[in-house]
Write a structure and sequence with these properties.
Blueprint: H1 8-15, H2 21-34, E1 68-70, H3 77-81, E2 96-101, E3 104-112, E4 126-129, E5 133-137, E6 149-153, E7 161-166, E8 177-187, E9 198-205, E10 211-218, E11 228-236, E12 245-252, H4 253-256, E13 260-269, H5 282-290, E14 295-299, H6 309-314, E15 324-326, E16 329-331, E17 337-339, H7 357-367, E18 370-374, H8 396-411, H9 415-419
Parallel strand pairs: 1-14, 14-18
Antiparallel strand pairs: 2-3, 4-7, 5-6, 6-13, 7-12, 8-11, 8-13, 9-10, 9-12, 15-16, 16-17
């Protein structure tokens, strides 16, 4: 059964344009007293709504009437649909608080997680283990797109287990399934980390001393010149009693005391919907599929291409294959367009855009959805809701090219074609 209910006042207004203004207003006032619900009437008459469900006499329902529109607002993607379990995984930005200021029109930034630079990088979500010293570093960038990393300094007198942990997005689900962890790591040459033989990754309780599962990643001659990507896949058969759990990256202090390391793009994924790498949560994906939507509409953020984690990693070639930036778009070694750098959206936090264009396309393929692409038209709103720095007519070619780039990538039929 399908039916539509339209606001009576809207229908009356549309029909009223055929009357003269005085006649229309008088008629509308009389009707409001007789037939409409009106808060100013002390005792309004009962209203009866009749809905016909007969098959005859109605237009056929549009097959694409029901679908999804998705934007990353209130962590609907980061910390929501996106299966990435690590919060602040690449130190890209932070949150602010928007509000009103006396004498200032519109909305302003009245609070900032980074005390000196609104939306600037922070260490939120991380905690040191075993006396390690955590700090932000911009002298050893992972790439042009990810210029801030976490420096981990191990004191000379450290003993036992040393490293750091991440609290995740409001905790971490630990349940029987396969997890995939990865991160980029760089040694600091002057402090000599040649004794390091391995790094441990683990899921552990934040309330007790329980370590649900742990895995060791062998390391040999960790480079101090270019970042090394370390990976770990581990199968967990334990169910934690709650979600108050953390992900830890640790080392043996007997191997690394007095050494310094740099970490970035720290990632942990559970099993994903349809087994997609860098995909959406398995449970939420199934719920969406069960709703049987027919289309997926996604916006084009700020006129730029959404970048996926896969595309971000293609830009992690700081020495032999640096990214070539053309203002808004950069192109990796394989020619795939991606964000050169993240920008701030209208939300109060940085969007990582880890769930990028490729993941949206795979989403539509997995669920048989029609793709509806909303492209940026060059018009912008500032943070206080007024008209912002919109594109002038003479610069709209850049906006058009960005939309065309995304459109071309969206209509290519295979994954390999999109990577060319």
């Amino acid at each position: 059964m399908t039916f539509f209910i339209a606001a009576a006042s809207t229908i009356s207004l549309l029909l009223g344009i055929v009357h003269s203004a005085p006649d229309y207003l008088q008629s509308r006032q009389q009707n409001a007293q007789k037939n409409y619900i009106n808060a100013s009437v002390a005792n309004p008459a009962d209203v009866v709504l009749q809905v016909s469900t007969k098959a005859s006499g109605r237009n056929q329902t549009a097959p694409l009437l029901y679908g999804w529109m998705i934007e990353d607002i209130n962590h609907s993607i980061d910390g929501g649909l996106y299966a990435e379990m690590i919060t602040n995984r690449a130190f890209q930005g932070s949150t602010v608080t928007l509000g009103m200021q006396d004498g200032v029109p519109g909305t302003s930034i009245i609070g900032s997680e980074n005390p000196t630079t609104p939306f600037g990088p922070v260490l939120t979500g991380y905690e040191a283990i075993g006396g390690a010293i955590l700090s932000l570093d911009r002298l050893h960038p992972l790439s042009e797109a990810l210029p801030t990393v976490m420096q981990v300094t191990i004191p000379k007198n450290a003993t036992g287990e040393v490293g750091f942990l991440n609290y995740g997005w409001w905790g971490m689900d630990v349940s029987p399934q396969t997890y995939n962890a990865s991160f980029y790591m760089l040694a600091n040459g002057p402090t000599d980390a040649s004794n390091l033989t391995g790094v441990n990754v683990s899921l552990r309780s934040n309330l007790t001393n329980d370590i649900w599962i742990s895995n060791r990643i062998p390391v040999q001659n960790l480079s101090a010149f270019s970042y090394t990507k370390l990976n770990s896949t581990f199968v967990n058969d334990v169910s934690a009693p709650n979600s108050n759990n953390t992900f830890a990256v640790t080392m043996d202090a007997s191997e690394v005391a007095g050494s310094t390391f740099y970490f970035d793009l720290i990632s942990l994924f559970p099993e994903t919907y349809n087994g997609r790498p860098n995909g959406m949560r398995k449970d939420l994906g199934q719920h969406i599929k069960d709703l049987n939507p027919k289309f997926l509409r996604r916006k084009q953020l700020g006129g730029l291409l959404h970048r996926s984690k896969v595309e971000m990693e293609r830009n992690h070639r700081p020495f032999d294959q640096p990214a070539r930036s053309s203002g808004y778009l950069g192109y990796g070694a394989m020619g795939v367009p991606f964000f050169a750098k993240l920008i701030v959206d209208v939300t109060e936090y940085y969007n990582t855009d880890g769930f990028g264009l490729l993941e949206y396309l795979e989403w539509t393929e997995d669920m048989g959805l029609e793709r509806v692409l909303a492209v940026y038209a060059g018009y912008s709103l500032s943070i206080n809701g007024s008209e912002g720095a919109s594109y002038p007519e003479e610069a709209l070619g850049e906006v058009l090219q960005s939309a065309l780039d995304e459109l071309v990538c969206s209509i290519l039929s295979t994954y390999k074609e999109r990577l060319r």
